[in-house]
Specification:
12 strands, two-stranded antiparallel ribbon, 36% helix, elongated, 8-stranded parallel beta sheet, 352 residues, alpha/beta
């Protein structure tokens, strides 16, 4: 069974407060996530001073500040990430953070972060993608807002640099070493169900010959569960300690209770998917015997008497001769007396 890798996306839902970030790590661990992921950026290197907020950000936080001013409030310092990395290690949950610039990527690499996530907005940022790929660690490439051609191009940049992975960890499923793992994503917050296009997961698998997961920005847990059912290897989902908190992403995030429900559902689905081989399972065998049917005598049949079609019927249980042999049985004779309404076995009959 391939275990689905579940990333609890904290993002910037800590609101720039390391104490909240630590509580989010604890909540992600308690919910059963494999990893908890943050975002690492330097606001001045990420946006210009005049850049406006995205519409959903304005809807959540108002228009009284620029995107730069908002991001300054939400960013954490390098020392904070060092503390959060160690906090995750102590609590046996994988630390991840998405770097938005080369300096942030270097800092996270020096911390010992074992897997990198390239966000959707950076899929055309060839210099950053190549810089991260040179670190020789597994990469998750998010593909929101992208065409198939853009995805293939970004994959080619990674493969051109990252011919051999240096990093190997028992913490990650083997598929993380397929260079890279793609994440289907719709970059709207929240994403509407009619926009999710989950079948693109299979398309990217077929075209790129890579493992594909789902970075889910829709409300609720249904889309993530459906993604697992159709073959997603990784699920990334935003969560928050309180949807009522101030900030751009809280409303579109799961609360802790919903995160737990999602992970329980994912674990149930990954077990239910099985190995794809069609065969009866042990739990069915008693029922199979009781509800399948056998050939039975419809009258008392004497020893040596021909059975005939008028001498047999088909009834439960399935402990005798299968109904598929009815015509053959009808041409045979009784090896000994057979009582009416009894299940006929092969030893009860013989060739005429």
């Amino acid at each position: 069974m391939n275990r689905i890798f579940v990333i609890a996306e904290a993002g910037v839902n800590h609101n720039g407060n390391i104490a909240i970030a630590k509580r989010m790590i604890e909540a992600a661990k308690e919910a059963g996530a494999d990893a908890v992921k943050f975002q690492t950026f330097q606001a001045e290197k990420l946006v210009t001073a005049s850049a406006r907020k995205v519409d959903y950000q304005i809807g959540m936080t108002g228009s009284h500040e620029t995107q730069l001013e908002m991001l300054r409030r939400l960013q954490l310092a390098p020392a904070d990430f060092d503390e959060l990395f160690r906090y995750c290690r102590e609590r046996d949950i994988i630390f991840m953070s998405t770097p938005f610039d080369e300096g942030s990527a270097d800092m996270l690499d020096m911390l010992g972060m074992e897997i990198f996530k390239i966000p959707s907005g950076e899929i055309t940022n060839k210099p950053l993608i190549e810089h991260i790929a040179k670190k020789g660690k597994p990469i998750l490439l998010s593909t929101g807002m992208s065409s198939m051609e853009e995805v293939e191009r970004a994959v080619s940049w990674i493969k051109a640099v990252q011919k051999n992975l240096v990093s190997r960890s028992e913490s990650f499923p083997h598929f993380f070493y397929s260079l890279p793992v793609l994440l289907h994503c719709v970059s709207s917050y929240p994403a509407n169900f009619e926009d999710l296009n989950l079948r693109a997961i299979k398309t990217m698998k077929d075209v790129c010959k890579l493992q594909v997961g789902f970075s889910d920005h829709s409300r609720g847990i249904e889309a993530s569960v459906a993604a697992v059912a159709i073959g997603a290897s990784v699920i990334e989902k935003h969560f928050t300690l309180d949807k009522g908190m101030e900030g751009p992403d809280h409303v579109a995030s799961l609360d802790v209770k919903e995160l737990k429900e999602l992970i329980v559902a994912i674990r149930n689905i990954e077990v239910a998917l099985g190995d794809g081989i069609k065969r009866p399972v042990a739990s069915e065998m008693e029922t199979r015997t009781l509800v399948r049917k056998s050939i039975v005598a419809t009258r008392n049949i004497k020893a040596g008497e021909k059975i005939g079609l008028n001498g047999i019927g088909i009834k439960r249980p399935g402990t005798g001769i299968s109904p598929e042999y009815r015509d053959r049985v009808a041409c045979m004779v009784a090896a000994h007396p057979i009582a009416a309404d009894s299940v006929i076995a092969w030893e009860d009959i013989k060739d005429a």
